[in-house]
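Below is just one:
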Amino acid sequence: MSGSFAKVLTKNDTGETGGHQAGIAVPKANTELLSFFPFLNPREFNPDSWLYCTDIDGQEWEMRYIYYNGKTFNPPKSTRNEYRITHMTKFLTKWMAKTGDVVIFKKTSKENHFQISIRHESASNESLGTTEDNDLIVLRGWSRIY
């Protein structure tokens, strides 16, 4: 599958809450999104894959795509059952990402390689047709870009 996916960043994603979460969440229920990223074998404990991302400056970033799945084992090995993309902090810092900004992953022709960019909230609002009275509906989470 080619194409792109975008995620509106939350305070947890950008670290603005001061908490220490492990990367941005990738929802398990979104099978199209899960198939966009590399397959992670759910029978393995915490399977992962490296994503090789290039930003618009040509800088390369290695981000870890992981399925924390310890809760699914019998007996459970942990309390977690979630997909995440980690090792994003330096990228988000470089591009001064804030809550409401959008991170975009675009597949390239190389396996596990993506172009990655940040669209800042003000630019996102303009591209979504914000009116002066701010009648804007913002979809949170992940969305496919066609």
User: Anything to note?
Assistant: The domain at 4-145 is CATH 2.40.330.10 (At1g16640 B3 domain). The helical segments are 11-14, 31-36, 89-94, 121-127. Strands lie at 4-8, 24-26, 48-54, 60-68, 82-86, 102-107, 113-119, 141-145.
